[in-house]
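User: Some background: our group keeps a shared notebook of sequences we're curious about, and every so often someone picks one and asks for a predicted structure to add to the entry. Today it's my turn. The entry only has the sequence so far, pasted here. Could you supply the structure so I can complete it?
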Amino acid sequence: MRAALGLFANLRPARTYAGLEGRSPLRAEIVRGSDVLVVRELTGGLYFGEKVEGTEFASDLCTYSREEVERIARVAFEAARKRRRKVTSVDKANVLATSRLWRRVVNEVATQYPDVELEHALVDSTAMALITAPTRFDVILTENLFGDILSDELSVIGGSIGLLASASRGASGTAVFEPIHGSAPDIAGRDVANPAGAIASAAMLLEHLGHNEEARLIEAAVEQAIGEGVRTKDLGGTASCSAFGARVRDILARQLPAELEQVA
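Assistant: Of course. Here's the predicted structure to add to the notebook entry:
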């Protein structure tokens, strides 16, 4: 689907909600205030390279072109302009040729964004820093494999993978929005899933369509519900999936502009 729709940019925001610091496996003072956006290249690298698989030998070819790096870098810098204006480009340039190309091209793109700070970091040291000091990061720009691993690492810092949304975007405007977790067939029909990630994905969809105010209202409603103690089992609470959703709807009903309330 990624390749067919040209969805080359995967955006995965991860933040720690106020009041949920104790749910993180890390100390509260480490995760408090963390808010990171991973911008992952989604249609290149090892996952899409030529593969050879045999009983005695196997290989996966990692390739990136200048164009592929340029377009994902622009997505990251544009996103940083709407946040805290810092991009950390993550690679393995001390070992990999593709990473050295990645670093050179990202440096070139950065000249078009003088208002955004750029730093380079190796993927292994970044993995450690996400655990020891996640608040130092704003936007993490990286390739397919590294982005997959680092965003999953980030997913547990906030307390539950059920909180996290994602967007996969292409150059044509086509995009897919979904929580980053799987479909969880083992709990299907039990009304215990955490819907926060799915609701947050809807907020990302609205922002993509230019409805920024409405997106912020949805995000604020999720945060308020959590702050009030409406929490599903994965967050240490007893609220059902439907009860969490109902509370978010109640909050939105009081906040939406009058002309949108009937639609809601």
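Suggested note for the entry: The chain has a mean pLDDT of 94. The first helix runs from residue 2 to 5.
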